[in-house]
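B., you asked whether I could sanity-check this one before it goes into the benchmark set. Here's the sequence:
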Amino acid sequence: MSEQIKVTINEQEYEVDKGARLIDVCRENGHGVPSFCYYQDLAVQASCRMCLVRIDKMPKLQTSCTINCTDGMVVTTQSEEVEKAQRAMGEFLLANHPLDCPVCDRGGECELQEVIFDWGDVEQRFTEKKNADPEKYLSPIVANDPQRCILCKRCTRVCDEWMGEDAIEAGNRGVNTVIGTYGGWLNCSQCGNCIEVCPTGTLLDGVYRHETRPWELEQTVTTDVYGSDGMQLSIGSRAGKVHRIVARDRYVNGLNGEFLDVKARFAHEFINHSDRIKTPMIRYSKGGKLIPATWDAAIKFAADKLKVHGKNVGVIASPRLTNEAVFTLKKFATDVAGSGNYAVSDASDVAAVFDNLSAPLCTHKEIRHAATIVLIGGEPEEEQSYTAKQIRQAVRNGGAEFICINDTPINLSRRATQFVHVNPGTVDAFALGFVDESSDAMIAEKCGVDTAVIEAAGRMIEETQGDLIIMIGSDLSIDAQALIAGSVGKLAGEGRRVLLHPLAKYNNSVGAHDVTSGRKSVDEVVKNSKALLIGGSLQDASVLAGKDFVVVQELFQTETTDHADVVFPAASFAEVDGTFTNNAGNVQRVRKAIEPVHQAKPDWMITSLLAKEMGTPITAELSVSAIFRTIADVVPAYEGLRYPSLKDESSPVQAKYALVSGKDMSAEISAVKSWLDSVPARGEKNTTVPKVGHKLHRLTTMTSKTQQFHLLAHGNPKPANLLVSPLVQFGLDGKPREEGLAEAAAVGVSDRSAPGK
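And here's what the prediction gave me:
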């Protein structure tokens, strides 16, 4: 526990941690201190000078963001002297700021607006002409109004410390300082965190821009549907339409603060897209067309056909569905069809890790404050972006040691204390290093690295004091994942705690594993079934060819629905209640923001209606909370959980996974050794650094419904005119459009040249 000291603020005495940041202590105890440049867990900037306070025995006012608390410190945050200084600083900040709140997207939630209302002055004494530049685009999804900038430099620090990209930076000096990019165009992961932390309307969401006013939006806190990190976000909806998504922390503190990645923040237009399946559809004959039908007719048709096939019915669930939807599909296989023939369509099953856990799962907060992080395989900066952000901050701000073992020089390897660059396809070999030190020489030979490198990594692990976190990439073989998960527990020692972090592939890969114990592989289920009920889509839909009867619950027509005899329109994550479980084992709420569009229904409800029509109701109550109660009663890791206990995501609930100790790993050791023996001793290393966004920007069924993603996926071309939307100047394939260029040319010559000044 930290040493406690006494600090007096505005004549009130408090006990606080020694060395705590004064501005945080003031705010936590109800003493409001304005600031713009200060941001918790970012390097101190101290440029806005709004957080001035009086500290006894110091000759002048001090910036509270740069002061650490000491014993006996006496602080005054409210006085005539302090208020006069803060009003003067507010006046300086408005010297070049346009008073265009009525047309600014940030109007109503602008930090500058709020602070000036409380600490500003009614008088503006500057008569000089304001700096003025036209609004422009920095990328297809980031717009910029430079004249609104107050140079807090939050965006530049976030781009550096959170993302490690340095894509946006301050240019020029003095009154001519502007926030910009090299070449005027953002070539980065397009995370949009610069928009999120901007206290004014300087950086703008190009997907949401000019759609609504913030106070017109109804905010619903829910969980990301793309990545397995379980990022909390707030859906802004109005009149049944989702207009934008922002990080939860803008309203309430969530596990990811204000961090989101490009998909979580911007790729939400699939929710209200016109391509959504609108009604149930029936294919009355093989090779025929899908014909729209009523719900009653489609449910009866599907139920009658499935009844005929009895125990020859298989069930497959997508790992993108909620725990409740996946569990309901499993119950359909066991209770209704009686086949017990069910699977999860996950490209990389996490069972090998969870069935062999020898150490607890770590939280993302523990990653941020870890002493040593070992990343074996994977590419978290592209697939588990919040995990990657925590690694970067642990190394940069926390001084953590970071060992990256990979056959590709991934972007995150630039942050590594030690990058172990192995031959292509040999990362699995390092699983042996955790159980058999005598194999180091063989591992080094097969992986194409020096034995000294492996020994140095081993010493770094052995000398760790604090949390040692082992991250397991989903690209490792099943045997290698099992071996690592089952053996790292023995690395714990005095002053050293070992924690595991599986890099699960999908938003609910972990939850789908938890609620489908006894599941089979997709191939096995398909092979043993004549009829299939599928929630979501398969990784490879071709396996459905030749099946007698297929029922699919989906949002869009996909390769899987091409094989379907009945298609039911399913609701998206924004239209359902439920839970996801993230890669830290946190069970998190998914909340309905809008009513299901068209005739869509939640997946769990569709399955329940089918079961009822077949004469075997799955649940007595047609209620999602009742289904979760059943899950908590039958899944040991979720024992005692209920929806009310999950409501505070600022303190996320972690499932209680049983640890396995003393398990015989000889089969896994033999399998990895046998594989290693077959690997040629020499190999040519991959030296190509992957392009930033090569996985984040790829077009999928959902991301392709947001037009800007097409430009990102096609190389993010820079338009000739930064003042006109790239969507006007380019086709979705990234090629210039003649009509777009003509429209761009209509903008005045002086305006077109302004961004390049």
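One thing to flag: The radius of gyration is 28 Å. Otherwise nothing jumped out at me.
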